[in-house]
Amino acid sequence: MSNIKLGLLVFWPTFWTGFPIKLAFGLLLLAAHMHPWEGEGLFLLLLLSIPIDIWALGLCARTVFIDRLKVDPQPGIGANLWLRWAVFSAMALPLIKIIVSGATEMAKSVTTNMVHAIKESIYPTLPVAEQITLELVMWGSVATGVLILCLLAWLYGLGWLTQPFVKNAKSLEGTEEERASFWDGLRIPADQPLLLTAFTGAGVVLVFVFWALLPSTTPHPHEEYEFISKGPKEEKVEPKKVLKEAEKVLAKAELVVKKLEEEKSGESKDSKDQKGQEPAAKEMQPEKKK
Amino acid sequence: MQQDSQPGNQPNPFEKIVEFVDERVGLKTIQAKMLNEPIPGGSRWAYAFGSVLLFIFILQVVTGILLMFYYVPSTDHAYDSTQYIIHEVDYGWFLLSYHFWGSSAMVVMVFAHMSQVFLWGAYKKPRELIWLVGLALFGIVMGFGFTGYLLPWDQRAYWATVVGVEIMDKTPIVGDFMARFLKGGPTPGQMTLSRFFVIHVMVLPAALAGLAGLHIFLFRKAGPAGPFRGTPEELKAKTDYFFPRQIWKDIVAMATVFLIICSLAFIEPVVLLQQATPDPGDYHPEPEWYFLFLFQLLRLKMFGGELGQFLGAIAIPGAFMAFLAALPFIDTNPERNLFKRPVALIGWIVIMVFILVFTLSAIINREFLH
Fold first, then answer.
1. Do B91 and A19 touch (CB under 8 A)?
2. Is the confidence at residue B131, as pLDDT, over 90?
3. Is B299 in Cβ contact with A129 (below 8 Å)?
4. ipTM over 0.90
């Protein structure tokens, strides 16, 4: 088997086997207000990832060895292979990042110049949307090509580091079914209810920890939110102003009362003059009189 | 009888309850039918997408019901009640953000599920009806995204709906009616919100539940297609039952998707823009991310003008959906091996690259708008 294929066959399932467990820890860190991509959070997650990766790598490598290569690897393959892969990746991945970033920047600059030249000489009215897509396709193709080549080189390295383990493994005889039952016998524990109980228990504990850590109100600042900050309007009380306004109101009230009294006295004079008309007025406005 | 008389073999209370229910509803027969489904070629991670979709939908229903306890579907209170959910209700911010990211996860999973069925050639005879019902479910999921987007009643919600309804209006014959029916007036308002709310919480869930049931029934009737490679003897030798291996894979996939949605809810929680107004101000209307590629396509000069907009927004997507619906009847070759179907493989890659390029272009285009 080629180095690239072997590297991919072991790496791909290893990544996905460890990913959900790391994700669960990452979520707990998020709930505890720690970012798993920086500072202490990242350090903790990387620390937790070591045993998870060793276990996942051992499990997946052994599966590939037995199922695809028809050999049984030596015990401790997870830790041994992890150490080699970790040292290699610690050197290779930053290098890949530098190469891909450099290639992307260069492709972007060349693309911008090319599109600029096209706009000056061939198509001066090139619309923005077309320009964006054209530039993206041009530099994106170069960047994707370089990234794929780098990843293939990295997978080649992983496969090359795995090959010695294949050579030292003992070959397995028998049919496919016999190999499958052999591998099942190795990985499925004798006491399955105990394993299920342990898994369920761990899951329940993680759920409780999550809900205990989960902030009940939003942990993110929302400056535009006015619901809380607005609140009920608080009006400042200025005693002098209030007293002045009250005096004004009282003065107005006095004037109104005076006017009413004057009107009343005028009315009483009129009523003496119009005494004969009163019963008719009573009939017209019975409610008002009540 | 002798065994029954021994105290050690007496059924415990739980077994008695199971026995009682089994006698009346045939529980054990249902269980056997559900779990002992043979999977030709054995269990695979690629088969988990359908189960994950069902799982996400159930959680969307649960979170949606919890949100409805607080949400008020009126233009006066929709925005404030959503802000109240985010800032005042215990864990409300998490529920709303989970619901928001869950809808995106549904779209991603529908794409993944449809891609898997297409690449595996699992839409071919005798599974044409499963494919057709699946396409209808795809439309419903998109409908959920479109109608749910308006409910918070902020600028983003309002203007995405305005753009969406305008696009719908361009559909010949039924477009005008559909646009007027959805808006319920000349501009989006209370009638629009009420109609979108009812469609989102009543019509679409009922339609999805019914069609999902039909989809599963048809799937169980036809049986799983199995891998596209391998001789019948090899597939038979590797045949596994749904329980326990496929169930285990489904559970792990569901847990992973659940954790991803929860993480996204933490990393990018829902934050509302200003309350909806008929004046967009500085805001540049934009649809949800899974419609961005189409939105960017309409910005191209060739899709300018009435005819261009009709072609880009209605004719091309409509023709593509019609092609997908007709696919099992056009592609009658029983060959399912992807590597012997180069047109299918290249076609799928081209469509994925097209969607990716235009989505990224739309994101880059934002810089030019500001």
1. no
2. yes
3. yes
4. no
